[in-house]
Amino acid sequence: MGIHSRDGRSNMVRNRIQYSIKRICDRILAVFMLVVLSPVFLILSIVIKADNNGPVLFRQKRLGYRGKIFFIYKFRTMVPGAIDLRNPDGSTYNAADDTRVTRIGKILRTSSLDELPQLFNILKGDMSFIGPRPDLPEFYEKYTSRQKHKVDVLPGVTGLAQISGRNEISHAERIEHDLIYIESYSLLLDLKIIFKTVVNVMFAKGLYVRQDKD
């Protein structure tokens, strides 16, 4: 009993230290990327505005750490006033032939450049580079008691669910991957996720819901 208790405390301390290191790295890397990518932000803002008249950024309320609600930022990829379509499980609908998506929006989604404004979310402390993708606030009441542990850590721009199928797997499966990530957290796992995310983005893997699923 005593050994297990010491091991448990040891794991908690180790994870706490790793989380602290992770938060410091998040902020430093976010500042660096915002400075380096500032020309990209400017060019994309001009292109999005020129493609069709509407706001450059899309913002939406999401569920954050310990249930705190925050606004997530993305480059707008849909036509202004696009209706909110949902999959049967309540997750966001997406398809390669989605008529709501603009011409530049398709490019932004395929390249994942639409996610760049989340660097501001990381800088603000709302998000991390790696972690569970944040759900809409109303999802919290639908979570099981176990699934509610998803908000025990900061949400991320990418995570274990995104490299394990992304939109090709169900929302419940994505949450399960998020919980596995939280339960087995390590900085090494974060590095693996970053590497696989880069590969997935390069090949646009898991971007859309599989059309052959029941």
Mean model confidence by pLDDT? 88
Helix and strand pattern:
HHEEHHEEHH
Task: Enumerate the spans where pLDDT stays under 50 for 5 or more consecutive residues.
Answer: 1-5
Oligomeric state as shown:
single chain
How many domains? The number is 1
> What is the global morphology?
globular
Q: How many runs of DSSP E, i.e. beta strands?
A: 4
Gyration radius over CA: 18 Å
The profile of the biggest β sheet is: 2 strands, antiparallel
Share of residues in helices: 40-55%
Tell me the strand order in the biggest sheet: 1-2
Estimate the strand proportion. 5-15%
User: Which structural category fits the helices and strands?
Assistant: mainly alpha
Distance between the termini: 47 Å
Count of DSSP H/I helices = 6
Q: Outline of this structure?
A:
InterPro entries: Bact_transf. The protein is built from six helices and four strands; from the N terminus they run H-H-E-E-H-H-E-E-H-H.
